[in-house]
Design goal:
8 strands, alpha+beta, disordered N terminus, Lipocalin, 20% helix, single chain, 8-stranded antiparallel beta sheet, 2 helices
């Protein structure tokens, strides 16, 4: 085997090995978008996907104080996947996951699927700021 073909074979072997190693997904990078009396709203910019006028993205709400769900469970933060229509200025929640700790830490308290149909985004709401960022 010539030195050049040896290098090519080695590179091919390394490529095959590297391709078989599972990729490691990085943790979300949460950008704080707005602070309210209720808590801190964040968005993961890497999660924003585009489909025409629609955007889908992950957001987080880190409450200042523990909250109680309708089922009586205590939680401190919520991860939400939202879909928005930038042109129509409408949004809907795809799913939510409630966590016992701050910034989506601790145990999962509850999960909820599609919670609502498309709704107009109130210009004075924290969601409006998330939508502006995503669009």
């Amino acid at each position: 085997m010539t030195p050049l073909s040896y290098v090519a074979a080695s590179l091919l072997a390394l490529t095959l090995v590297a391709g078989s190693i599972p990729s490691v997904h990085s943790a979300p990078r949460w950008d704080q978008i707005v602070t309210t009396g209720q808590g801190y709203y964040y968005i993961d910019p890497a999660s924003i996907t585009k489909d025409g006028d629609r955007r889908t993205f992950d957001s987080a709400l880190d409450y200042r104080h523990p909250q109680t769900s309708a089922t009586g469970k205590t939680y401190q933060s919520v991860a939400t996947q939202l879909q928005v229509n930038c042109r129509m200025k409408m949004a809907r929640i795809v799913h939510m996951t409630y966590y016992s700790g701050s910034m989506l830490a601790g145990n999962v308290v509850e999960r909820q699927g599609m919670l609502q149909e498309w709704m107009e985004v109130d210009a004075s709401s924290p969601i409006h700021r998330l939508v502006r960022y995503a669009c």
